[in-house]
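Protein in question quoted for reference:
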Amino acid sequence: MKKPTYATLWEILLVSMRLGCTSFGGPVAHLGYFYEEYVRKRKWMDEKSYVDLVALCQFLPGPASSQVGIGIGVMRGGLLGGILAFIGFTLPSVIALILFALLLQGFGIGEASWIHGLKIVAVAIVAHAIVGMAEKLAPDLQRKSLVLFALVGTLVWQTAFTQVGVILIAGAVGYLLYKNIESKEEASFHFPLSKRFGATCLALFFGLLLALPIIREITSLEWVTMFDSFYRAGSLVFGGGHVVLPLLEREFVPTGWLSEEVFLAGYGATQAMPGPLFTFAAYIGAIINGWQGALIATIAIFLPAFLLILGALPFWDKLRRNRNIKGAFMGVNAAVVGILIAAFYDPIWTSAILTPVDFAFAAILFSMLMYWKVAPWIVVVTGVIGGVLLGLL
């Protein structure tokens, strides 16, 4: 691969930063923005390569849209191009959420009515995500049963290992149920990184996943504890930014790093931001330890996405033809829906819907998203205004 020029790298940064400032609507919407900008307008890659890249990122844990952006950046400008594409797409919402967190720390927010409005927004947005994901990822009785298994398991046994166990069991069941699923032959996929580099990235991914909890116990340093918690969340999230909520909530709320009020306020505010939902980590990090904590949190939660996409792409062409692997991921994706429903109940529903009026307002916000197709940022603004009005009743 020819070494990218400074002009190419600068273009990658500027284009991705513009997308980072304007890409509202969550991961699926981001992929639409990417297609329009990178494929149709700039023709940085052909449509078949883009579809192949999206397919891989849907299979991997982590933020799918961010991984697609990283992959496009690498194809256009090598490893440095991938880093710049990530920075451009992520930085705007990271900065905005750090400022929001620092602003909140200067005020008492526990009883603020607009915060309650943001919590009701979270109810509507996660409910909307559940409906869309359930239709796509659990269309048959077997996968609906896996959804129920994941829902019950996650709610009844609320431990740090439950979600990982649920995902592993669902993957095994999916492998058994769908191992003979028909697989269409597809064109070859080319990526400008060696298999040796990919293997190194994958080894580093698994090495950190195993080593960080040990280092955390040995050192008892606050920043190591933070890095481990965010890295683990970024490593184990199948299904996108909405599913990272229960992982982060159980890492930081029960342990006293931040209150549930502050946690859900940030989650609601994140919905108003463009760019990836994983930047919610920057908000949590800033609440805990200012901009330094935000930097640690952002690097830690996105590092697994980097290592996985750079590690998997060189092997993807062969892997994606394996019917057994596809079956396992079908089971995993169904379990994700169940985990999301569990998170929808606790802590989102139980903390936000306190009165019949709250439920009525949540139904209005949900209808704005689901049926009237209103932009998410408008829903968030409506939620804030509604929260203030509800506080006056």
The chain has one domain: 6-107+114-182+189-392. Residues 6-107+114-182+189-392 form one domain. Residues 257 and 288 are 7 Å apart (CA to CA).
